[in-house]
Design a protein that fits this description.
Blueprint (H helix, E strand, L loop, with lengths): L12 H10 L3 E2 H11 L8 H13 L3 E7 L5 E7 L1 H25 L7
Antiparallel strand pairs: 1-3, 2-3
Length: 114
């Protein structure tokens, strides 16, 4: 069952890309599809946001690329996670866990608990 689309918060595109690539090598469009699939279509990254983020992550040493052929026989860059990218993903995952827990605490507070 698909979920309704939600806006992606500023700064989360890198994290989502790192997670998608951590599951296996992917070309750019494949990354978009993987994120859509995992989120049950709720998260959709515009291509105009994806490619600058891939460039930024690659030049930061968090992902690396290699040319290959996509499933439709087109020449494509395939991205993989580096050791630094794995550490970064672990760090941002822990951060988001703490953040969402804190936000959940605030949203679940009842008037009698204040």
């Amino acid at each position: 069952m698909t979920k309704p689309p939600v806006d992606i918060l500023h700064g989360t595109v890198d994290m989502l890309i790192l997670k998608a690539v951590s599951l296996g090598p992917l070309h750019g469009y494949g990354i978009l599809l993987r994120i859509q699939q995992i989120s049950n279509e709720a998260l959709q990254i515009p291509q105009g946001s994806l490619y600058p983020a891939l460039y930024r992550l690659e030049h930061g040493g968090f992902i690396e690329s290699e040319w290959g052929e996509s499933e439709n026989n087109r020449r494509s860059k395939f991205y993989t996670l580096t050791a630094a990218g794995r550490r970064k993903l672990n760090d941002v995952t822990a951060y988001w866990g703490r953040l969402t827990e804190a936000i959940g605490d605030v949203l679940n507070t009842r008037p009698s608990e204040v």
